[in-house]
Sequence to fold (142 residues):
Amino acid sequence: MQLGETCSIRCSSAGRRFWHSSRSLAVFALVAILLPTAGCMVGPRYQRPSVPVPPAYKEQAPTKPVQGAQWKSAKPDDTAICGKWWEIFNDPKLNTLEEQVNISNQNVLTAEAQFRAARDSVRIARSGLIPTATTNRSFSNS
Fold:
């Protein structure tokens, strides 16, 4: 027998002794029993508190008016102009100015997009001037 063989025999017998000892079996059995019950709740069953719920979920006027406060109920207006809000004022000068600004905004956005594209093209062209480092891994056994 060589030195390595006796070590492997000793290690495997030590492992068998560990699992066959009564203490380790008791600990294993205890863990096997307690692990499934770890999520169980101990204590009284939860009861949802009772809360008065109004018949309709809308704001209600206060029962007592507060001094100095003016209560206003919400009045949603879905028919209001949403797109061109400046037309509410019926001012032709404001309408022409807004149309000019909208055209200018589109021109600015187009110019900004073209600038970003040109800047990225320059970066791509200059990337060949930067030195690169590569690595390879290899394994040989002899």
Notes: The CA atoms of residues 135 and 141 lie 20 Å apart. Confidence is low (pLDDT under 50) at residues 3-9. The helical segments are 3-20, 22-34, 92-126. The radius of gyration is 40 Å.
